[in-house]
Amino acid sequence: MRDAVIVAAVRSPVGKRNGALATVHPVDLSAHVLNALAERAGLADPAEVDDVIWGCVSQVGEQTFDIARNTVLTAGWPQSVSGVTVDRQCGSSQQSVHFAAAGLISGQYDLVVAGGVESMTRVPMGSSLGALGPDRASWPNPSGASLRTVFGGVAPNQGVGAEMIAERWGLSREQLDEFSLGSHAKAAAAIDEGRFAGQIAPVKLEDGTVVDTDEGVRRGGTLESMAKLKPAFRPDGVIHAGNSSQISDGAAALLMTTSENAARLGLTPIARIHTAVLAADDPVIMLTAPIPATRKALDKSGLSLSDIGTFEVNEAFAPVPLAWLSDIGADPAKLNPNGGAIALGHPLGGSGARLMTTMVHHMRDNGIRYGLQTMCEGGGQANATILELL
């Protein structure tokens, strides 16, 4: 029976908005990661790759015209290698992994790259709506009038959704801020201990500067300093810049194949895709679907919560993983052990692959048999993936 295994996982450092990676075109950043992936996997001939499945949310401007195919060509890979771009909002590159696994198991692929990119500096959120003026009434409406009518005229907003989660789960601003400070502390420790070194492909800029470290991690924060930040979505709200994911630039990729083909090519599998599921939930509160997605993944896998040794739950906003912890009952010590998007950043289309790259390296480094990753997505959706270490 065919399976789907990961043989290499590489990511760029994650840059802050207007930070070190701001001068790097998203196609060039993607191509850099693609070539680093081939090098680290020991892939002698990229012509063996059947497809590059690339997540990207804002497919406009420099990220349009099928950025996956442009990435392949820019990387200097053979013209015979195709590329397709995927949008499932924040879960786009996690969905790329799911599509890759399905293609491998069904026999459509023998060797495939799954990953993604987002340059939120060069292609800001909302760019796909065109030039946005101050009059919101004049903005294009991607939802359509009928969809808004279904939900009582409410226009979904992720920040407001985060506020709604905090209210529904009874999460105080202090709890959110404590969690966020913990994310930064864990990420700082991971950097200091060199835990990211094996997964990051340093980027050399035109001026010769080498970027090899995630830029968003802040040290020395306190609850007092966090308390000075103004709420971002409601005047009396609890969500602010300090307990939200950072706007970022970054890319990540995984090389996937079958166990049989890995042996033929001389590649060493790290982990296999054990279970891959989707779930959807209320599109207005929007960010709760990781909870049913996790339950669905556990049910489908036949595994129990105690079997899972590490969890990656994307920190879009602090209430998301905290509500997930409350309902799922997982061990908080196993959650995002190297920090999350609040500290490391959230380059939308690349985040799913970034989380999975971090998780697979953490599993290998610590001998963890099973890991589960899930992330909330626009429209009230979520992917969940269980990996098994080989």
Question: Short description, anyone?
Answer:
By secondary structure, this protein is of the alpha+beta class. 34% of the residues lie in helices and 19% in strands. It is globular and about 60 Å long.
How is the secondary structure organized here?
Elements: E1 5-11, E2 15-16, H1 26-41, E3 51-55, H2 67-74, E4 82-86, H3 92-106, E5 111-119, H4 144-150, H5 158-168, H6 173-192, E6 203-204, E7 210-211, H7 223-227, E8 248-257, H8 259-265, E9 271-280, H9 290-301, E10 310-313, H10 319-328, H11 341-344, H12 348-366, E11 370-377, E12 381-389
Helix pairs in contact: 1-2, 3-12, 9-10
List keywords for this structure.
390 residues, Peroxisomal Thiolase, Chain A, domain 1, 10-stranded mixed beta sheet, 12 helices, two-stranded antiparallel sheet, 34% helix, 12 strands, alpha+beta
The count of helical stretches stands at 12
Broad structural category: alpha+beta
**CATH class, please?**
Alpha Beta
Low-confidence segments: none
Largest sheet: 10 strands, mixed
The number of strands is 12
- The topology string of helices and strands comes to EEHEHEHEHHHEEHEHEHEHHHEE
Oligomer: single chain
What is the mean predicted local confidence, pLDDT? 95
Percent range of helical residues: 25-40%
Number of domains: 1
Enzyme class: transferase
Domain Thiolase C-terminal: 267-388
Active site: 90 (acyl-thioester intermediate), 346 (proton acceptor), 376 (proton acceptor)
Protein name: Acetyl-CoA C-acyltransferase
